[in-house]
UniProtKB/TrEMBL annotation:
InterPro entries: YjdM, YjdM_C, YjdM_N. Residues 46-113 form the Protein YjdM C-terminal domain. Residues 4-32 form the Protein YjdM N-terminal domain. Belongs to the YjdM family. Pfam families: YjdM, Zn_Ribbon_YjdM. Transmembrane segments: none annotated. It comes from the Bacteria. It comes from Metapseudomonas resinovorans NBRC 106553. This is Protein YjdM.
Amino acid sequence: MSALPPCPKCNSEFTYEDGALLICPECAHEWSAEAGSDASGDDKVIKDSVGNVLQDGDTITVIKDLKVKGSSLVVKVGTKVKNIRLVDGDHDIDCKIDGIGAMKLKSEFVRKV
């Protein structure tokens, strides 16, 4: 069969080569063929809208009016959010906003202070 390693994310055995990358057709994860099967795929770097690297505990500013789904509330431009927590997923910032409560934000709509 194939001598390629299984996907490090979902353990699928159906990986294939595309140039220097290995690709999983089931979860669409891509990784370098030279990296082998080391488990360093968990070190995801999350950056804000201008490219600054975000870390847990940072303070950020919202750069766009964001409507809160399921409510009439809006997170206004310039809202400062302290003590963020980075999580996996589409909305990669978990935080608490004064007057609104717990929220998840996308890193593309914030800027590090």
